[in-house]
Amino acid sequence: MSLPFFIVDVFTDKKYAGNQLAVFLGAGNLSSEEMQKIAREINFAESTFVTKLDKENNKAEIKIFTPSQEMQFAGHPIIGTSWVLMNKIFDNSPGEIKLNVPIGPIAIHQEEDLIWLKAAQPKFWDVFSKEDFTLFSNLKVSDFENQYLIQEVSTGSAFVIVPLNSKRALENLVLDKDKTDEWLKKNCKTSHRGLYFYCIEDSKIISRMLCIEHNQLVEDAATGSASTCLQAFILKYHASEIEAINYQGAYIDRPSQIHFKGKLSGNDFDIKIGGKTQFVAKGEWEA
């Protein structure tokens, strides 16, 4: 069985930066186990599999896999897959499409060279102490932003949002893998567990996402799902409206830019993230 595939770099204005993504077409006959094996073989942060395609109505259904598990929602795979469909597969380069993922339909639109998605309503879960983090990292209590909480937030995938008070603390961050893994397993509510550290310095959002995968401490270049959680956190605790760029990936030499555009009205969160995508390669995969 031969599957057409595309490789793109997401959340970047140039190739060989941002977050890598493999997009496999015609995957409706693959089992979840087969998709997982392919995702493990290509070993990007995530790969997507288009299981249904409706060209007449500009709709598609996809499944998302990391090298170790299936994801219910993930930002950079949705943005990158949408770019491939809108610019390489669907006729007439439509400005809007609908993408079905496990958590439900996602509305996508393109403005010039930015692809935007609208996230689901966030859930705000447990709050954690700064002292917890001193047990498995090199952070001191004084490295944390005093005004804001450390909290697990989900918009489909959950992340612990950790506000730091300086770029220096973010840049010098070191985690103990085993102690971090133990803390995540003990405290996080879902099987997907990640830490999203960020700071706001000179009105600039800078972030790092770290998690444990295949018993390794992994840092992600650009995490769209974590960015929707961070945007929800900022709207709830910082300001009720935001238009900004979240800079991630610089510390692993994959600089990324995730565009934020959000508003909180009463209890309704309007969370949008956007990004540019760069075409890298295409080919045929023998499944």
Shape: globular
Largest sheet: 18 strands, mixed
Radius of gyration: 18 Å
Residue windows where pLDDT falls under 50 for at least 5 positions? none
Helix fraction, binned, reads 10-25%
Quick gist of this model?
With 287 residues, the protein is of the alpha+beta class.
Question: What features would you describe in this structure?
Answer:
With 287 residues, the chain is an alpha+beta fold. The chain folds into two domains: 128 residues, Roll (Diaminopimelate Epimerase, Chain A, domain 1), CATH 3.10.310.10; 152 residues, Roll (Diaminopimelate Epimerase, Chain A, domain 1), CATH 3.10.310. It has six helices and 18 strands. The chain has an 18-stranded mixed β-sheet that branches. Strand 2, helix 1 and strand 3 form a beta-alpha-beta unit. Helix 2 packs across helix 6. The longest helix has 15 residues. It is globular and about 55 Å long.
Topology:
Blueprint: E1 2-10, E2 19-24, H1 32-42, E3 46-54, E4 59-65, E5 70-71, H2 75-89, E6 96-101, E7 104-111, E8 114-118, E9 123-128, H3 130-134, E10 150-154, E11 158-163, H4 167-171, H5 177-187, E12 194-201, E13 204-213, E14 216-220, H6 224-237, E15 241-248, E16 256-265, E17 268-275, E18 277-286
Parallel strand pairs: 2-3, 4-6, 11-12, 13-15
Antiparallel strand pairs: 1-2, 1-18, 3-4, 4-5, 6-7, 7-8, 8-17, 9-10, 10-11, 12-13, 13-14, 15-16, 16-17
Organism: Flavobacterium hydrophilum
Family: Belongs to the PhzF family.
Active site: 46
